[in-house]
Amino acid sequence: MPRDEFEIMRLLRDGISQEVSANDFDVFYLQRFVRSAVEGDTTVIIRDSDQLDGFYVRRIAREGKSNVVFR
Question: Exposure check for the chain: N or C terminus, fewer CB within 10 A?
Fold first, then answer.
């Protein structure tokens, strides 16, 4: 299991899908995870996404397109 946000980003860039919680990371890191997933052509799954403001969900979704899943 990844230890920190930088390891998660590295794994995503390497093409390894990751699941993260919106309770554990702020929006800044969630957006960085999505960018890394796009770069690695993989998927980041954001669970507890109901904790996010709708504005941020739309913004992250627009940036991630098919590389992000909200749960």
Answer: N
Q: Is 33 helix (H, G, I), strand (E, B) or coil?
A: helix
Q: Are residues 40 and 64 in contact, defined by beta-carbon separation less than 8 angstroms?
A: no
| Cβ neighbours for 53, distance < 8 A, ≥ 6 positions apart | none
pLDDT (0 to 100) of residue 3: 78
Helix (H) or strand (E) holding 12: helix 5-13
At which residue do the structure tokens 């998927």 appear?
43
* Domain residue ranges of the chain, discontinuous segments joined by +: 5-70
